[in-house]
Amino acid sequence: MYYSNKHERDEGKTGMSWNVKLCTWIIREARALWTTRNQETHLPENGNSKAEQEIYAQIHRLYDMHDEIGHQDRILLEEPIEEKLKRPLTVLRQWIRNTVPVINRCIYDYQNKLRTGQRDIRQYFQRVQPIPAQTPCNNSINQSGSTIPE
């Protein structure tokens, strides 16, 4: 509006051209900001991108909750963490998405059992040491070729 009302207009300096230049500048700066953010987020830094580091941190936090869930639920975290971290990021991201609600529920249930004094079925049984496997009888052969048990 300022340019269209100005009496001494220069050739090409109209409100429309100023508007186009402003929009071009905004788009260029937004693109540069997005590119910088994308590089910082997704390019490797010491071998891992920020997204990868966050996924690994979440997995470590889940494995740290091992003692906060009941024995029967610990099967969720049975796989060694070293093996888990070797999987592709997409698989890890999906595993986290599926496991977090389950772990939260397991923690809630375990805390509820502790609070109410509910006993675990394993508390009703005594631990029995396994019996060693029996070895077959060693037989020695006498000079006549018959076997004599020792």
Structure described in brief:
This protein is mostly helical and 150 residues long.
Structure description:
The chain has 150 residues and is mainly α. It has two domains: 41 residues; 68 residues, no CATH class. Helices cover 53% and strands 4% of the residues. It is built from five helices and two strands. The protein has a two-stranded antiparallel ribbon with strand order 1-2. A hairpin with a 5-residue loop joins strand 1 and strand 2. Helix 3 packs parallel to helix 5. The mean pLDDT is 80.
Spatial extent as radius of gyration: 35 Å
H/E order of the elements?
HHHHHEE
Order of strands, widest sheet = 1-2
Please give the largest β-sheet: 2 strands, antiparallel
Average the pLDDT over all residues and give the rounded result.
80
List the helices and strands and how they pair.
Blueprint: H1 2-5, H2 15-42, H3 50-64, H4 81-84, H5 89-116, E1 139-141, E2 147-149
Antiparallel strand pairs: 1-2
Helix pairs in contact: 3-5
Defining traits:
5 helices; two-stranded antiparallel sheet; 150 residues
